Amino acid sequence: MNVAIFGASGATGRLLTKRCFDAGHHVTALLRHPETFPLRLIVRSVPGSAFDLSAVAQTIEGADVVLSALGANSLKKEDVLERAVPQIVTAMQQKGVRRIIVLGSAGAKPDALDKQPAWRRWIVENLVYKTFLKWPVASQRSQYATLSASHLDWTMVMPPMLTNGRGRGKWRIDPDALPPNANRISREDVADFMMQQIDNPQWIGKAVYISW
Ligand SMILES: NC(=O)c1ccc[n+]([C@@H]2O[C@H](COP(=O)([O-])OP(=O)(O)OC[C@H]3O[C@@H](n4cnc5c(N)ncnc54)[C@H](OP(=O)(O)O)[C@@H]3O)[C@@H](O)[C@H]2O)c1
């Protein structure tokens, strides 16, 4: 398949890019710095920013599926998803590309903590989502709102904390809330689950929680 990927140079994006290549897909990546991208020899690079509609459209041209692992480089207000996701949706609508699988985060929806014990829900809501993760959570809520209004075949994958360790090859999926006592999962396992969604229609039009 032809896969367009955004955020390919990031910690999860690099794993996704390598997996796409290994699976035999043709990968086009939008990159702000293609010259330093370690996987530049295995992708077709489109230089540019995800805020630039023409660069985004060039990346999506001819794609069968779009993957995104975009995110800000800090916990400050950067509005990366607020600005980039509408451009990706517009370009997909213009080019007639329907399938998109994005990396989100557990804070994107208000039901995220419904299956957690009350004490943990209180701590995460009041001491995490409203304080140091305030801007990433706002960005993820924006991404969810944009995708769910898009009429595309979207899937948003929502982990809690991401780690860089080895994948376990198994995880819990829940469309309603983070599974009980879910607190982390490796980027490797999230990348594997996102790859599996390329030809799995089960979660189209859905945001799903994933955790160990
Ligand atoms: N960290 C966690 O524990 C955690 C938990 C749950 C969910 N998440 C979410 O997972 C997502 C990915 O996280 P990550 O840690 O794997 O990512 P990351 O390493 O921070 O990478 C972010 C990617 O987005 C790209 N990017 C940012 N702005 C861009 C722009 N204007 N144009 C093009 N590319 C742009 C970066 O490109 P450059 O290389 O050019 O900067 C990079 O490839 C984020 O949305 C994050 O909120 C994170």
TrEMBL record:
It comes from the Bacteria. GO terms for molecular function: oxidoreductase activity, acting on the CH-NH group of donors, NAD or NADP as acceptor. Gene3D superfamilies: NAD(P)-binding Rossmann-like Domain. Pfam families: NAD_binding_10 (PF13460). This is Oxidoreductase. InterPro entries: NAD(P)-bd_dom, NAD(P)-bd_dom_sf, Polyketide_Oxido-like. It comes from Edaphobacter dinghuensis. Residues 7-201 form the NAD(P)-binding domain.
